[in-house]
């Protein structure tokens, strides 16, 4: 029987690539999203990937969603915490709303979703949790105290949960992407994007497929000895 994989924010951008990659690798994939019905429908129609709409920053919504998934498909074996947002501003101009929205969406969500699947993973002696962090968690980025704090929090969470679950068939890892060729990155004005690319040692953006392939590997049985790791996938932009 195919394994059950949940990808948060799995209907567009990096998450869409992860969802499609896992589906093609034989998983039963549930791609979640918040509001973008058009992208969700397209993914369902074109790739037969099931979709579920809820707010990952809200624990009760996550609980209802996980219960729905368990009733429809069974316990979650692979969780990819990918949903994330930015609300950039220099700290002296940042509002509490900008701070809280990013922390709740990028970090609380990782607690919410992981908390709701971890007991079943422990009972099954199997699980894979893969958290999508960011190179900016490692190196910092002006204008992103909220985002960098949330994504660095994800790295600490990853290591602590990896320690709690080691020896129980569960692995918990993070991927820290650099600039990936997504609509969001392509929306950066061309001159600025050219400057950014010129500062990346590999002189190019990463691809969604490169992230998706790493997720597939971390989800696989072959990756059973990797836990608590942060995989840097950034073209050499930051070496930790
Ligand atoms: P996108 O903005 O393209 O997609 C984000 C996804 O998250 C969407 O599907 C969105 O849902 C979902 N989402 C956002 N907020 C919520 C919420 N509250 N509840 C449920 N779903 C939510 O992001 P990217 O593909 O660019 O990024 C994916 C991840 O990778 C993020 O965590 C990001 O921080 C990280 N990352 C991205 C990089 C890049 O270069 N793009 C670089 C480094 C890290 P909906 O479609 O309904 O809006």
Automatic annotation (TrEMBL):
Enzyme Commission (EC) number: 1.1.1.36
Record bears the keyword Oxidoreductase: yes
GO biological process per UniProt: monocarboxylic acid metabolic process; poly-hydroxybutyrate biosynthetic process
GO cellular component: cytoplasm
Keyword annotations from UniProtKB, A to Z: Oxidoreductase
Pfam families, alphabetized: adh_short_C2 (PF13561)
Keyword check for Oxidoreductase: yes
Top class in the EC scheme: oxidoreductase
Top-level taxon: Bacteria
One example GO MF annotation: acetoacetyl-CoA reductase activity
Alphabetized InterPro entries for the sequence: Acetoacetyl-CoA_reductase, KR_dom, NAD(P)-bd_dom_sf, Sc_DH/Rdtase_CS, SDR, SDR_fam
Gene3D superfamilies from the UniProt entry: NAD(P)-binding Rossmann-like Domain (3.40.50.720)
Domain Ketoreductase residues, every copy: 3-178
Family: Belongs to the short-chain dehydrogenases/reductases (SDR) family.
NCBIfam families, per the entry: AcAcCoA_reduct, PRK12824.1, PRK12826.1-2
Name the UniProt record assigns to this protein: Acetoacetyl-CoA reductase
Organism: Candidatus Bodocaedibacter vickermanii
């Amino acid at each position: 029987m195919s394994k059950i994989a949940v990808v948060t924010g799995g209907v567009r951008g990096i998450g869409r690539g992860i969802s499609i990659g896992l589906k093609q690798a034989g998983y039963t994939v549930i791609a979640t999203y918040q509001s973008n019905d058009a992208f969700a429908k397209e993914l369902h129609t074109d790739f037969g990937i099931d979709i579920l709409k809820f707010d990952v920053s809200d624990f009760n919504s996550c609980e209802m969603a996980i219960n729905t998934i368990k009733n429809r498909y069974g316990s979650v074996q692979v969780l990819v915490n990918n949903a994330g947002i930015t609300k950039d501003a220099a700290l002296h101009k940042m509002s509490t709303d900008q701070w809280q929205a990013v922390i709740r969406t990028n970090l609380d969500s990782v607690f919410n979703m992981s908390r709701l699947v971890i007991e079943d993973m422990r009972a099954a002696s199997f699980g894979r949790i893969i958290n999508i962090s960011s190179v900016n968690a490692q190196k910092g980025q002006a204008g992103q105290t909220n985002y960098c704090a949330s994504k660095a929090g994800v790295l600490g969470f990853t290591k602590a949960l990896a320690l709690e679950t080691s020896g129980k068939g569960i692995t918990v890892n993070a991927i820290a992407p650099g600039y990936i060729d997504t609509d969001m990155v392509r929306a950066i004005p061309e001159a600025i994007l050219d400057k950014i690319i010129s500062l990346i040692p590999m002189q190019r953006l990463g691809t969604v497929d490169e992230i998706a392939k790493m997720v597939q590997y971390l989800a696989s049985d072959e990756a059973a000895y990797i836990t608590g790791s942060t995989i840097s996938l950034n073209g050499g932009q930051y070496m930790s």
